[in-house]
Design brief:
elongated, 2 domains, alpha+beta, 143 residues
């Protein structure tokens, strides 16, 4: 997609999007582009200033805080939810599926757990009615 600023024979300017430069040329030669203001057929590309974004650091774009700090209210809320879940749950690591099934079956004490499960293990737990939910963050060691 390409955006052009166009100008009609009556000096009206307007912007329009085209699939490509070739598509614009084809539509223009077929007289299928009209002024968005007055409907005139005499339309041509206007002089356009390039849209160049000045180089800025991530810190400038997101504030002056450290890169590890949440940048938005949504990120702050997610960080707080993660902190609460991790503080109130036992991390059972790769044994999550076995621990969740044992808790569900009553062979292990009921408690909140977090950990990792392979997709087929998680599917099996769900199919068997074990209440599990994926968390919206990855492995603590890599994040």
């Amino acid at each position: 997609m390409i955006k052009y600023t166009l100008k009609c024979e009556k000096d009206h300017t307007f912007d329009s999007w085209f699939q490509s430069a070739e598509a614009f040329d084809k539509l223009l030669s077929a007289r299928m582009i009209t002024c968005a203001v007055c409907g005139a057929l005499g339309v041509e590309k206007a002089i356009m200033a390039p849209r160049v974004k000045p180089a800025r650091s991530r810190a400038q774009e997101q504030g002056d805080g450290p890169l590890s700090a949440p940048a938005s209210p949504a990120e702050q809320a997610m960080a707080e939810i993660r902190r609460q879940i991790e503080a109130s749950s036992e991390d059972v690591g790769d044994n999550f599926a076995a621990e969740a099934r044992a808790i569900h079956d009553g062979t292990k004490p009921e408690r909140s757990i977090i950990g990792r499960a392979k997709p087929e293990e998680a599917t099996s737990l769900i199919e068997d009615g074990v209440p599990v939910v994926p968390l919206p963050w990855g492995n603590k060691r890599t994040n």
